[in-house]
Amino acid sequence: MHSMTNARPRLTVNGLHKQFLLHGQGGLEIDVMHDLSLTLQAGECLVLAGRSGIGKSTLLKMLYGDYRIDQGRIRLHFDDGDLDLETLPTYAWHGLRRDVIGYVSQFLRVVPRVAAVDVVMEPLLARGADEADSRQRAETLLARLNLPERLWRLPPGTFSGGEQQRVNIARGFIGEHPLLLLDEPTASLDAANRDVVIALIGEAKARGTAMLGIFHDEDVRERVADRLLPLDGNQGGLSNASQHYRESLS
Ligand SMILES: Nc1ncnc2c1ncn2[C@@H]1O[C@H](COP(=O)(O)OP(=O)(O)OP(=O)(O)O)[C@@H](O)[C@H]1O
Protein backbone atom coordinates (compact mmCIF):
# COMPACT_ATOMS: atom_id res chain seq x y z
CA MET A 1 0.00 0.00 0.00
CA HIS A 2 1.19 3.55 -0.71
CA SER A 3 2.39 5.84 2.08
CA MET A 4 0.65 9.19 2.42
CA THR A 5 2.27 12.58 1.95
CA ASN A 6 1.89 15.76 3.97
CA ALA A 7 2.63 18.04 1.05
CA ARG A 8 -0.73 17.84 -0.73
CA PRO A 9 -4.29 17.34 0.39
CA ARG A 10 -4.74 13.74 1.47
CA LEU A 11 -8.18 13.65 0.03
CA THR A 12 -9.90 15.48 -2.80
CA VAL A 13 -13.56 15.04 -3.64
CA ASN A 14 -14.87 16.56 -6.87
CA GLY A 15 -18.37 16.79 -8.26
CA LEU A 16 -19.80 14.00 -6.13
CA HIS A 17 -23.43 13.07 -6.70
CA LYS A 18 -25.48 10.45 -4.91
CA GLN A 19 -28.87 9.19 -5.78
CA PHE A 20 -30.78 6.32 -4.23
CA LEU A 21 -33.17 4.33 -6.37
CA LEU A 22 -35.94 2.86 -4.23
CA HIS A 23 -37.08 -0.27 -6.04
CA GLY A 24 -39.73 -0.96 -3.39
CA GLN A 25 -41.28 2.47 -4.11
CA GLY A 26 -41.85 1.99 -7.83
CA GLY A 27 -38.32 3.13 -8.74
CA LEU A 28 -38.53 6.43 -6.83
CA GLU A 29 -35.23 8.32 -7.07
CA ILE A 30 -33.88 10.31 -4.12
CA ASP A 31 -31.16 12.86 -4.80
CA VAL A 32 -29.08 13.06 -1.64
CA MET A 33 -25.98 14.80 -2.90
CA HIS A 34 -25.42 17.18 -5.76
CA ASP A 35 -21.99 18.33 -6.93
CA LEU A 36 -20.12 18.05 -3.64
CA SER A 37 -16.43 18.96 -3.57
CA LEU A 38 -13.95 19.14 -0.70
CA THR A 39 -10.28 18.86 0.17
CA LEU A 40 -8.78 17.50 3.34
CA GLN A 41 -5.22 18.02 4.54
CA ALA A 42 -3.03 15.91 6.77
CA GLY A 43 -3.60 16.77 10.44
CA GLU A 44 -6.91 18.46 9.71
CA CYS A 45 -10.34 17.68 11.10
CA LEU A 46 -13.12 18.76 8.75
CA VAL A 47 -16.58 18.58 10.29
CA LEU A 48 -19.62 17.97 8.11
CA ALA A 49 -22.56 20.15 9.04
CA GLY A 50 -26.12 20.44 7.86
CA ARG A 51 -29.57 19.27 8.82
CA SER A 52 -30.59 15.69 9.47
CA GLY A 53 -30.94 13.76 6.22
CA ILE A 54 -28.69 16.06 4.19
CA GLY A 55 -26.27 13.24 3.41
CA LYS A 56 -23.47 13.45 5.99
CA SER A 57 -23.37 9.73 6.82
CA THR A 58 -23.89 8.92 3.16
CA LEU A 59 -20.68 10.79 2.29
CA LEU A 60 -18.70 8.85 4.91
CA LYS A 61 -20.13 5.58 3.60
CA MET A 62 -19.10 6.49 0.05
CA LEU A 63 -15.58 7.25 1.27
CA TYR A 64 -15.46 3.92 3.07
CA GLY A 65 -16.74 1.93 0.12
CA ASP A 66 -20.06 0.98 1.73
CA TYR A 67 -21.97 2.99 -0.88
CA ARG A 68 -21.10 3.07 -4.56
CA ILE A 69 -19.66 6.24 -6.10
CA ASP A 70 -22.01 6.74 -9.05
CA GLN A 71 -20.80 10.10 -10.27
CA GLY A 72 -17.84 12.27 -9.31
CA ARG A 73 -14.32 11.65 -8.12
CA ILE A 74 -12.80 10.72 -4.77
CA ARG A 75 -9.03 10.78 -4.88
CA LEU A 76 -6.47 9.86 -2.20
CA HIS A 77 -2.99 11.32 -2.49
CA PHE A 78 0.14 9.34 -1.65
CA ASP A 79 3.85 10.11 -1.93
CA ASP A 80 4.09 7.84 -4.92
CA GLY A 81 0.87 8.70 -6.69
CA ASP A 82 -2.88 9.08 -6.45
CA LEU A 83 -5.61 6.55 -6.01
CA ASP A 84 -9.08 7.08 -7.45
CA LEU A 85 -11.69 5.40 -5.30
CA GLU A 86 -14.50 5.49 -7.87
CA THR A 87 -12.55 3.09 -10.08
CA LEU A 88 -11.02 1.00 -7.30
CA PRO A 89 -11.65 -2.71 -7.89
CA THR A 90 -13.74 -4.35 -5.17
CA TYR A 91 -10.88 -6.58 -4.01
CA ALA A 92 -8.67 -3.55 -3.24
CA TRP A 93 -11.05 -2.10 -0.64
CA HIS A 94 -10.03 -4.65 1.99
CA GLY A 95 -6.39 -3.51 2.00
CA LEU A 96 -7.41 0.14 1.83
CA ARG A 97 -9.57 -0.22 4.95
CA ARG A 98 -6.89 -2.20 6.73
CA ASP A 99 -4.06 0.27 6.06
CA VAL A 100 -5.40 3.66 5.00
CA ILE A 101 -9.01 4.48 5.88
CA GLY A 102 -10.34 3.99 9.41
CA TYR A 103 -13.98 4.43 10.36
CA VAL A 104 -15.71 4.89 13.68
CA SER A 105 -19.33 4.10 12.90
CA GLN A 106 -22.25 5.21 15.03
CA PHE A 107 -22.75 1.74 16.43
CA LEU A 108 -20.46 -1.20 17.11
CA ARG A 109 -21.09 -4.14 14.82
CA VAL A 110 -20.83 -6.88 17.39
CA VAL A 111 -19.22 -10.17 16.50
CA PRO A 112 -20.79 -12.77 18.80
CA ARG A 113 -18.49 -14.37 21.42
CA VAL A 114 -15.45 -12.18 20.65
CA ALA A 115 -14.10 -10.42 23.76
CA ALA A 116 -13.97 -6.60 23.80
CA VAL A 117 -10.18 -6.53 23.94
CA ASP A 118 -9.97 -8.83 20.89
CA VAL A 119 -12.45 -6.64 18.99
CA VAL A 120 -10.19 -3.66 19.67
CA MET A 121 -6.85 -5.29 18.78
CA GLU A 122 -8.12 -7.00 15.61
CA PRO A 123 -7.15 -4.14 13.21
CA LEU A 124 -3.53 -4.48 14.36
CA LEU A 125 -3.51 -8.28 14.08
CA ALA A 126 -4.94 -7.95 10.57
CA ARG A 127 -1.71 -6.15 9.64
CA GLY A 128 0.42 -8.88 11.16
CA ALA A 129 1.32 -6.97 14.36
CA ASP A 130 2.67 -8.80 17.40
CA GLU A 131 -0.17 -10.18 19.54
CA ALA A 132 1.19 -9.15 22.96
CA ASP A 133 1.92 -5.59 21.75
CA SER A 134 -1.51 -5.34 20.15
CA ARG A 135 -3.23 -6.54 23.33
CA GLN A 136 -1.24 -4.05 25.38
CA ARG A 137 -2.26 -1.17 23.12
CA ALA A 138 -5.90 -2.30 23.16
CA GLU A 139 -5.91 -2.44 26.97
CA THR A 140 -4.28 0.98 27.22
CA LEU A 141 -7.00 2.48 25.02
CA LEU A 142 -9.82 0.72 26.88
CA ALA A 143 -8.39 1.97 30.17
CA ARG A 144 -8.15 5.53 28.83
CA LEU A 145 -11.77 5.28 27.76
CA ASN A 146 -12.70 4.16 31.28
CA LEU A 147 -14.08 0.78 30.26
CA PRO A 148 -14.06 -1.26 33.49
CA GLU A 149 -11.38 -3.95 33.40
CA ARG A 150 -13.90 -6.68 34.29
CA LEU A 151 -15.52 -6.09 30.87
CA TRP A 152 -12.37 -6.43 28.76
CA ARG A 153 -12.60 -10.22 28.44
CA LEU A 154 -16.36 -10.23 27.78
CA PRO A 155 -18.09 -9.97 24.38
CA PRO A 156 -19.58 -6.46 24.07
CA GLY A 157 -23.02 -7.67 22.86
CA THR A 158 -24.59 -7.08 26.28
CA PHE A 159 -22.67 -3.87 27.10
CA SER A 160 -24.53 -0.56 27.50
CA GLY A 161 -24.71 1.78 24.49
CA GLY A 162 -21.92 3.98 25.85
CA GLU A 163 -19.71 0.99 26.70
CA GLN A 164 -20.16 -0.46 23.21
CA GLN A 165 -19.36 2.89 21.67
CA ARG A 166 -16.12 3.12 23.66
CA VAL A 167 -15.08 -0.32 22.37
CA ASN A 168 -15.93 0.96 18.89
CA ILE A 169 -13.84 4.12 19.39
CA ALA A 170 -10.86 2.16 20.69
CA ARG A 171 -11.09 -0.14 17.64
CA GLY A 172 -11.30 2.86 15.32
CA PHE A 173 -8.32 4.72 16.79
CA ILE A 174 -5.97 1.81 17.47
CA GLY A 175 -5.01 1.40 13.81
CA GLU A 176 -3.77 5.01 13.46
CA HIS A 177 -5.00 5.11 9.86
CA PRO A 178 -3.88 8.20 7.91
CA LEU A 179 -7.51 8.98 7.04
CA LEU A 180 -10.14 8.58 9.74
CA LEU A 181 -13.91 8.89 9.31
CA LEU A 182 -15.88 9.69 12.46
CA ASP A 183 -19.67 9.27 12.50
CA GLU A 184 -20.92 10.77 15.78
CA PRO A 185 -18.27 9.08 17.93
CA THR A 186 -19.26 11.02 21.06
CA ALA A 187 -23.06 10.73 20.76
CA SER A 188 -23.68 8.26 23.59
CA LEU A 189 -20.82 9.27 25.90
CA ASP A 190 -20.73 11.13 29.19
CA ALA A 191 -18.71 14.34 29.55
CA ALA A 192 -15.56 12.64 30.89
CA ASN A 193 -15.41 10.16 28.02
CA ARG A 194 -16.22 12.86 25.48
CA ASP A 195 -13.09 14.61 26.73
CA VAL A 196 -11.06 11.43 26.15
CA VAL A 197 -12.30 11.22 22.57
CA ILE A 198 -11.48 14.89 22.00
CA ALA A 199 -7.96 14.18 23.32
CA LEU A 200 -7.65 11.15 20.98
CA ILE A 201 -8.66 13.35 18.05
CA GLY A 202 -6.06 15.95 19.08
CA GLU A 203 -3.34 13.28 19.24
CA ALA A 204 -4.39 11.94 15.84
CA LYS A 205 -4.11 15.46 14.38
CA ALA A 206 -0.62 15.77 15.83
CA ARG A 207 0.32 12.49 14.07
CA GLY A 208 -0.92 13.97 10.79
CA THR A 209 -4.18 12.04 10.58
CA ALA A 210 -6.71 13.60 8.23
CA MET A 211 -10.21 13.36 9.71
CA LEU A 212 -13.68 13.87 8.37
CA GLY A 213 -16.32 13.82 11.07
CA ILE A 214 -19.94 14.30 12.08
CA PHE A 215 -20.52 15.81 15.53
CA HIS A 216 -23.91 17.12 16.53
CA ASP A 217 -22.71 18.35 19.93
CA GLU A 218 -21.71 21.97 19.34
CA ASP A 219 -19.20 22.03 22.17
CA VAL A 220 -17.38 18.97 20.78
CA ARG A 221 -17.56 20.41 17.29
CA GLU A 222 -15.94 23.65 18.37
CA ARG A 223 -13.16 21.81 20.12
CA VAL A 224 -12.25 19.44 17.27
CA ALA A 225 -13.14 21.21 14.03
CA ASP A 226 -10.47 22.99 12.03
CA ARG A 227 -13.10 23.75 9.38
CA LEU A 228 -16.80 23.19 8.92
CA LEU A 229 -18.28 22.00 5.65
CA PRO A 230 -21.99 22.82 5.47
CA LEU A 231 -23.72 20.34 3.18
CA ASP A 232 -26.80 22.55 2.91
CA GLY A 233 -26.95 24.98 0.01
CA ASN A 234 -26.73 23.46 -3.43
CA GLN A 235 -26.03 19.91 -2.39
CA GLY A 236 -29.53 18.53 -2.73
CA GLY A 237 -30.84 16.78 0.37
CA LEU A 238 -34.42 16.55 1.47
CA SER A 239 -35.68 19.45 -0.64
CA ASN A 240 -34.53 17.64 -3.75
CA ALA A 241 -35.84 14.34 -2.46
CA SER A 242 -39.28 15.77 -1.81
CA GLN A 243 -39.25 17.52 -5.20
CA HIS A 244 -38.53 14.19 -6.87
CA TYR A 245 -41.24 12.59 -4.79
CA ARG A 246 -43.77 15.22 -5.85
CA GLU A 247 -42.71 14.81 -9.46
CA SER A 248 -43.17 11.06 -9.18
CA LEU A 249 -46.75 11.61 -8.02
CA SER A 250 -47.70 13.99 -10.82
N1 LIG B 1 -29.27 2.96 1.59
C1 LIG B 1 -30.14 3.95 1.40
N2 LIG B 1 -31.24 3.79 0.63
C2 LIG B 1 -32.11 4.80 0.46
N3 LIG B 1 -32.00 6.03 0.99
C3 LIG B 1 -30.94 6.23 1.78
C4 LIG B 1 -29.96 5.23 2.03
N4 LIG B 1 -29.00 5.75 2.84
C5 LIG B 1 -29.39 7.02 3.09
N5 LIG B 1 -30.54 7.31 2.45
C6 LIG B 1 -31.25 8.59 2.48
O1 LIG B 1 -30.33 9.60 2.21
C7 LIG B 1 -30.60 10.77 2.98
C8 LIG B 1 -29.34 11.15 3.73
O2 LIG B 1 -29.09 10.22 4.78
P1 LIG B 1 -27.84 10.36 5.75
O3 LIG B 1 -27.91 9.27 6.75
O4 LIG B 1 -26.62 10.50 4.93
O5 LIG B 1 -28.17 11.76 6.45
P2 LIG B 1 -27.39 12.55 7.58
O6 LIG B 1 -27.13 13.91 7.06
O7 LIG B 1 -26.22 11.75 8.04
O8 LIG B 1 -28.51 12.60 8.71
P3 LIG B 1 -28.44 12.54 10.32
O9 LIG B 1 -27.84 13.84 10.75
O10 LIG B 1 -29.89 12.44 10.70
O11 LIG B 1 -27.65 11.33 10.69
C9 LIG B 1 -31.78 10.42 3.87
O12 LIG B 1 -32.93 10.97 3.29
C10 LIG B 1 -31.79 8.90 3.85
O13 LIG B 1 -33.10 8.42 4.02
From TrEMBL:
Gene3D superfamilies: P-loop containing nucleotide triphosphate hydrolases
Key words of the record: ATP-binding, Lyase, Nucleotide-binding
Gene Ontology MF, one: lyase activity
Ranges where the ABC transporter domain occurs: 11-250
Similarity comment: family membership: Belongs to the ABC transporter superfamily.
Name of protein: Phosphonate C-P lyase system protein PhnL
Organism: Salinicola lusitanus
The organism's taxonomic lineage, starting at the top: Bacteria, Pseudomonadati, Pseudomonadota, Gammaproteobacteria, Oceanospirillales
